[in-house]
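Q: Here's a chain of 321 amino acids. Please give me its 3D structure as tokens.
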Amino acid sequence: MSRRTVADRTWLIAIAASMWGFSGLLRSPLSKEYASPTIVLGEHLILVLLVAPVLLPALRGWWHSSLRTRIAAVVIGGGSSALATTLFTLAFRTGDPITPQVLQKLQPLLALTFAAILLGERLRPRFVFFAVPALAGAWLLAFPNPFGVGVNALVPAALGLGSAALWALGTVLGRLVSTELPFHHVTALRFFFGMVALLVIVPATGSPFTMPIATWPRLVLLALVPGLIALVLYYFGLQKTPASRATLAELAFPLTAAAIGVFVQHATLQPTQWLGFALVLAAIIALALHERTQERTAVRTAPDAEAGVRSNSRNTPANRR
């Protein structure tokens, strides 16, 4: 018992997840002043510089991998890193600082759905009992007036859910890529292809390429703390932490985001939004406990892929960048 307790690093997962919650504190003010693609480009440039020592080996490994892996790596970088983070940043500009972050807790459900479509995994009927409450909670959370939704209210919710879907897709594609490339190479490729995609997105949207020097310290913090440092802590902790327990520890992310949004950024949520918040968290907790304790899970996976699904079907930090 003591040996297992010492080896377990659930607490480290919770610390990493809490760092993700600080993302809004840095990202939200920037999004009010500068174009979202420009912010995300600056973030990716810093991240590429940080992973520069492993970038060339990563590109060599990518070039010699299968066509499926090469395509998946490009999609992860361009879609799940560049476009998803741009949508996430834009959501702060058009909505409150809490909703876009808490909606990311739908990623486990979205990732499992993508896994069923792309990897041939089977969603059992009982999956509905977790999906329906989570989707209902997401609706209540996204709209202050859930029974009178206007176009203006749909935009930030759609941006938040769009980023969650792209990050979930990156999770599933990451499973494919990780069978051929080591994790640190996948991470470097994600940032690199994300930067390349942003070099197209920025001029296509008419956004400037540069930001004032005064914003650089905040960009560095954004790339370092909820980015690279949280990523390293998360995966170091995951080596000795059961995936289902890690999923529960990740709930520190929306709780931290909500606390910062309410007490630091002075955001307010309606009672129905708090109800939605509770429903989303309850559904994800129930799904994690069910998959951990029940012999017949809600998602049937191949025996050799089961561990990978449970460790990847979540809002991992690599997918947040």
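Q: Can you summarize the key feature?
A: The chain is about 75% helix and 0% strand.
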